Amino acid sequence: MSGIVIIGAGECGIRAAVTARDTGYQGPITVIGEETALPYERPPLSKPDDSGAVEKPITTLEALSEKAIVLKCGVSAIAIKRDAQEVVLSEGGSLPYEKLLLATGSRPRPLNCIGGDRALVLRTIEDANAIYAAARTAKHVVIVGAGLIGLELAAELRTRNLNVTILEAGPRPLGRNVPEQFATKMALRHQGAGVGIVCNAQIASCTDSGVVLNDGRIFEADLIIAAIGVVPNTELAASAGLTTENGIRVDSRLMTDDPNIFAAGDCAAVKTAEGTYRRYETWQNAQAQGEVAGRNLAGGNALFDIPVWFWSDQYDLGLQGVGDTSGSPAAIRDLGKDAEMLFFFDDDGALVGAAGLGRGNAVAKDIKIAQRLIGVRLDAAALSDPGHNLKKLLRAA
Amino acid sequence: MAEWIDACATDDIDEEDLIRFDHGDRTFAIYRSPNDEYFCTDGLCTHEQVHLEDGLVMDYVIECPKHNGQFDYRTGEAKRAPVCVNLGTYPVKVEGDRVFVEI
Ligand SMILES: Cc1cc2nc3c(=O)[nH]c(=O)nc-3n(C[C@H](O)[C@H](O)[C@H](O)COP(=O)(O)OP(=O)(O)OC[C@H]3O[C@@H](n4cnc5c(N)ncnc54)[C@H](O)[C@@H]3O)c2cc1C
Prior knowledge:
The complex is a heterodimer. Chain A has 10 helices and 24 strands. By secondary structure, chain A is α/β, with parallel strands linked by helices. Chain B has strands at 4-9, 17-23, 26-32, 38-42, 56-58, 61-63, 70-72, 78-80, 89-90, 92-95, 98-102. Chain B has a single domain, classed as Rieske [2Fe-2S] iron-sulphur domain (Rieske Iron-sulfur Protein). Chain B is built from no helices and 11 strands. Chain B is mainly beta. Chain A binds chain B through residues 15, 18, 41, 44, 56, 58, 63, 283-284, 287, 309, 311, 360-362, 364-365, 368-369, 391, and chain B through 16, 48, 50-51, 54-56, 63, 65-68, 81-82, 84. Bound molecules: flavin-adenine dinucleotide. Flavin-adenine dinucleotide (FAD) binds next to helix 1, strand 2, helix 7 and strand 20 of chain A.
């Protein structure tokens, strides 16, 4: 009997499977995962403890079997036969589907330069173990890319007393998705801790002894890590004839051009209200899209529209953002103890996004309130006044 | 043996909010509901051992500051992934303007 098949046993795939079952779907549900490890969370990989990378399971085999969800680990889907509604498996044979979800995630963008394959990358538990094992004997680390993962790794390795240099191709760290004020604060925190940050760095090659830039500068390194973003895993979808372009294209129900096939999580490019397509690479997005996909696989008609949220921990600092935080903030709220919130409005004065930076989880509560206020027209003066309770705004909304 | 401990004053906690309460080597969260009732749970989220003190209280739900997991703080019941393990809860009584917890 054919049922729901989910390709990819990450945050999104597992969330979708559980949601489909909880929504009342009665047929078989099978999740196919290329990785041999039981499904685990990726965020802890860049936030290890003393013994190395933390392998934090997303779920347990008992929990899955209670819900009659079949998990095939170490098996990849190698083709989709859309006419026959079948997925061809690497272990041989194929699996029929009534509805199919592609939750194939993304993979690190490779460093394209001479010797680029000397650079380690961070995506899987094996990657993480390789990096922390190398870090035990390394002295000089060069991290290519000053995005969130590069900076988190820098903080971690610097705390272990390694010499750390970050080489960034762009003009500033955290150029994507983080407000400039906060990117600057984060960079200062790193520099204060002794991390070197070199911007506008064009890499020529990686060698045994380090990294060479186009302008001839050489950075000594016995450990090179590339953290220059990810590319979505779209090949399977593309070879099945589905539309892909920086992600597998889906509508707001997360449906591809084929009404029996959905895509969600890091691999999906979702149509926005403006008609453009957007791909998100955050843990909460994988969960939220997984839930929407799960409902729709089970025959529902759920829409993905909630604002996407992320966090990043570096040293003792916690950064969080929700929604669209581009442009300049309409209101700045001082939470005391060096914690600060920025609020972003659209042209009509409605909240479109917020970001917060502070020690530990200092900004968590306000970010959660902001998340619930997105789309609401707000008074910038009230937001900027720390004496004005944000929850009052929420109740009034 | 559990005993009643004088934990805080009633107005140490804002309405629909919580505070952290440490006792011995244990840590707790004490809540004041929108209806002026008081509750007590374990202090650490069951997902990644993050303290709930920075979380958001909405009605009878506490949302973990880290990963959006939610619990009903009256019963400790886990309400939303990624949490699946419930929080322990502890009896609370109010005498005059003091809040006591049995821990
Ligand atoms: C080191 C690190 C730290 C991070 N930290 C944060 C953070 O602090 N905050 C945050 O918000 N986000 C963070 N993220 C991002 C977050 O983890 C991702 O957005 C999330 O994992 C995406 O989930 P997913 O299920 O869509 O994809 P993935 O987690 O990539 O899972 C997809 C799975 O599908 C499998 N697969 C692919 N193709 C096939 C196939 N053909 N057959 C079978 N299986 C297949 C893959 O092997 C993989 O296991 C971090 C990511 C990394 C790598």
